Amino acid sequence: MKLGAQISLLILLFHFTGMSIASNNNFSNTILINTSISIVDNSWTLVKTENGIKVYFSQYNSIDGALSLKIKFENETNEDVDFSWTLTNKTKSTTLKNISKVEANKSLEIKFEEAPITIYAGETMNDFHININVQ
């Protein structure tokens, strides 16, 4: 977790703790805080640049709560680009093939809502490799 996010989380925690103490007329020595915090870093990591297409990976919690991979293709050219791509997982030998189109100077984010690409325990985004072939 980034330092800024950690500081913001601590400030938020102290704020809610202070509100809890201030709203309680009986100033007890015991403060009970029951929180469940799930933080997913939505920052993108550049993994490849090829023929004017930048490819990024990020992670998110899918509907079932599993840590999953999402992909973003960014077209830095002045023309629409059709391309095929293949995603492989180094540890599970999983391969996903697809054909996509990105409009000029725009990006395309792929999240796989119905069949997420799970990042299993012990894996990181670095265990995934992507090849693109501009057509």
The coarse silhouette is globular
| Mean of residue pLDDT values | 76
By secondary-structure content and strand pairing, the structural class works out as: mainly beta
Please give the number of β-strands: 8
Number of helices: 1
What composes the largest sheet? 5 strands, antiparallel
Helicity range of the residues?
Answer: 10-25%
Please trace the helix and strand order, writing H or E for each element: HEEEEEEEE
Unreliable runs, pLDDT <50, ≥5 residues? 2-40
Approximate strand percentage: 35-45%
- Could you give the distance between the termini? 38 Å
Radius of gyration: 21 Å
Offer a quick outline of the entry.
The chain has one helix and eight strands, in the order H-E-E-E-E-E-E-E-E.
Structure description:
- The chain is mainly β.
- 15% of the residues lie in helices and 40% in strands.
- It contains one helix and eight strands, in the order H-E-E-E-E-E-E-E-E.
- The protein has one helix at residues 3-22, and strands at 45-50, 53-61, 67-75, 81-89, 95-102, 107-110, 117-118, 128-134.
- The strands form two sheets. Strands 1, 2, 3, 6 and 7 form a five-stranded antiparallel sheet that branches. The chain has a three-stranded antiparallel sheet with strand order 5-4-8, with no helix packed on it.
- A hairpin with a 5-residue loop joins strand 4 and strand 5 (95-102).
- It starts with a helix and ends with a strand.
- Mean pLDDT is 76; it is low at 2-40.
